[in-house]
Amino acid sequence: MTGDNPRVAPQLVRDLAPKLADLTDDVLFADVWERPELSPRERSLITVATLIALGRDAQLVSHMNKAIANGISREELAEVATHLAFYAGWPAAMSAVSALANIEE
């Protein structure tokens, strides 16, 4: 890992796929997420919406927590799920609400 960037990739990923962990830390979160063209809040909103639409529930709780840290409210996350019910499907929205129930307060 380069610089002062914290490790983001879970230890399990680091143990099983160290290069994937390095790319997660050094490229995705230390470069892509830090680009100035979009704010962290905007990136979180885009990421959460994409994860909901694609049904990537395993990553959703951690990104919802990150979204809250980046200034998105629980109510806004619920509204994203409601909005996406009509575009990504009802099951995707219902799964997102289940994930929302598991995020940190």
From TrEMBL:
It is an enzyme of class 4 (lyase). Its EC number is 4.1.1.44. It comes from the Bacteria. This is 4-carboxymuconolactone decarboxylase. Residues 18-100 form the Carboxymuconolactone decarboxylase-like domain. Keywords: Lyase. Pfam families: CMD. GO terms for molecular function: 4-carboxymuconolactone decarboxylase activity. InterPro entries: 4CMD/NDH-1_regulator (IPR052512), AhpD-like (IPR029032), CMD-like (IPR003779).
